[in-house]
């Protein structure tokens, strides 16, 4: 196993499940010191347990925080720096799918909830982590966007709007901070079989959600769901020094879904 993250400090949000969890395990196996953030304390504990099973010497800081709360975000950044002295990589990943509905029927409160977590939370994280990385003169940020951030997704106005915003923040900040040695990019996952995608399928298909899933993947040229580990490999690469010159890129990992009409 590579040690490309040896002595590197990696901060991740949404680390209590899904893509955050598997990505945390991956970079831990490659030597990273970790600061893991999630609103779900039990999920964080589960992630730490899984990490220590494969990387017993790993240093893992757990921080329970709501990414939609600016003060909480500043605090998780400050706590990471206080503990480790720096932040080399940031997987800005926490998000929710929101409810599915036509735009005219989409609740205002629900829309604002999705925006507050998926877009505001990403902005707050970038705001405070970028200040640390600018002072260091180095760092890498990977934001989680979505296929829904580069094309329309029916019945998901809040989610799609938030992820389009993440793409814009990524590209804009990358232009601003490249001169300070910081690279910023986003991943755009398609249908990856995570708890979030499973929940979306249950909204679509109810008790028959597995059948809904079979229909859903037909839009994908590879005719299958992605595996979380496949995303973790990409995240680890983008956070590493090997990807320093990849800046302002939004990288689909979707089996070709975003290019199929």
TrEMBL record:
Alphabetical GO biological process terms: bile acid metabolic process
Coiled-coil annotated spans: none
Keyword Oxidoreductase: yes
GO molecular function, one term: oxidoreductase activity
SUPFAM superfamilies assigned: NAD(P)-binding Rossmann-fold domains
Keyword Protein biosynthesis among record annotations: no
Key words of the record: Oxidoreductase
Domain of life: Bacteria
Database matches in InterPro entries: NAD(P)-bd_dom_sf, SDR_fam
Pfam families assigned: adh_short_C2
PANTHER family xrefs: DEHYDROGENASES, SHORT CHAIN (PTHR24321), ESTRADIOL 17-BETA-DEHYDROGENASE 8-RELATED (PTHR24321:SF8)
Family: Belongs to the short-chain dehydrogenases/reductases (SDR) family.
Protein name stated in the entry: NAD(P)-dependent dehydrogenase (Short-subunit alcohol dehydrogenase family)
């Amino acid at each position: 196993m590579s040690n490309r993250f040896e002595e590197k400090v990696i901060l991740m949000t949404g680390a209590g499940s899904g893509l955050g969890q598997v990505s945390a395990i991956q970079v831990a196996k490659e030597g990273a010191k970790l600061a893991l953030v999630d609103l779900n304390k039990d999920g964080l504990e589960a992630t730490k347990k899984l990490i220590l099973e494969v990387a017993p010497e790993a240093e893992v800081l757990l921080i329970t925080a709501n990414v939609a709360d600016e003060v909480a975000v500043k605090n998780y950044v400050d706590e990471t720096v206080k503990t480790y002295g720096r932040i080399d990589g940031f997987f800005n990943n926490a998000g929710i799918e929101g409810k599915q509905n036509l735009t005219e029927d989409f609740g205002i409160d629900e829309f604002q909830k999705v925006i507050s977590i998926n877009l505001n939370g990403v902005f707050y994280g970038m705001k405070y982590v970028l200040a640390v990385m600018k002072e260091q003169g180095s760092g890498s940020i990977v934001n989680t966007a979505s296929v829904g951030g580069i094309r329309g997704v029916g019945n998901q106005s809040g989610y799609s709007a938030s992820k389009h915003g993440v793409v814009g923040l990524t590209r804009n900040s990358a232009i601003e901070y490249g001169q300070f040695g910081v690279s910023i990019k986003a991943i755009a996952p398609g249908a990856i079989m995570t708890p979030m995608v499973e929940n979306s399928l249950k909204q679509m298909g109810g008790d028959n959600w597995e059948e809904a899933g079979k229909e859903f993947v037909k839009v994908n040229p590879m005719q299958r769901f992605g595996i979380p580990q496949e995303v973790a490999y990409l995240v680890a690469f983008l956070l590493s020094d090997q990807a320093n010159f990849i800046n302002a890129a939004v990288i689909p990992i979707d089996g070709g879904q975003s290019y199929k009409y």
